[in-house]
User: Fold Plastid lipid-associated protein/fibrillin conserved domain-containing protein from Anisodus tanguticus.
Amino acid sequence: MHSLFSYYRKLLVNSEKLKEVQSKQFKGFSSALCVRPIVSFSNTIRGLHNHGRVACLATSMTMARDAEKDLESRKYELLNIIQDTQRGLVTTADQRSTIEEAMVVVEGFDAGKEIDLSKLDGTWRLQYTSAPDVLVLFESAARLLFLQVGQIFQKFECQNESRGGLVRNVIKWSVPRFLEENEGATLIVSAKFSCLSARNIYLKFEEISLQNINISDDLQAVIAPAILPRLFLSLQILQFIRTFKAQVPVTSPERQSVGGLYYLSYLDKNMLLGRAVGGGGVFVFTRAQALAC
Assistant:
């Protein structure tokens, strides 16, 4: 009886130990079961999130590259259309309509953005215009054999300015046989401009000047023949012509300055599109080398 009791007692003790071991094993198993999958799931979510962000960034970069390629293609199309128009002098109604459509497409890439004066600053060469006051110069040069109209520039000076600056309309012109071809003299119309809104600027014209007169070799020979000693008077005449500069102010105490609204419809590092408000015509400019004037 005693031995049987001892047997059952040992069996009970062993049973309790077995339960304790099983309990510990179950706790370890449950801990591994509950914790490890949660950590793994969190890492998976984080990985998916990072992968999605990288994929989104790559997609955005691809779209930006495609948009830039499309923009450059549209700009090239515009320049190609105006190439044979002699800066707007020779155009048909259909050509003007096609040019207008091409301009609107390019302008759409920059719509709504405020003008960046740091990009505007510099020299721009006229490639096309429908402005009557500029076309009359081209028409006069085409009719009059004694007049040549060379390159036309707009030079903006607005560094360190936030709401305006200075603009100079620079016209290179010449009189054949008297002045150097296309670069005989420079006519400059200066104006101050102020930003009225994100895209509109107001021009206040101040002065018209004539300078940089370069006479032809033929005229120099008449004034100071090479076969004769150059007299002091002859040299003085040549020096006077070369350094001559005439300035006519547009403003005066008795009258207000002439002004006008100008809408800058597109601007980037190498192209500027503008529209004179009130039916004054459109302008297409491309970036040019710095001009001293």
User: Anything to note?
Assistant: Residues 45 and 51 are 10 Å apart (CA to CA). Helices lie at 2-82, 93-108, 117-120, 132-143, 217-223, 232-243. Residues 1-5, 25-39 have pLDDT under 50 and may be disordered.
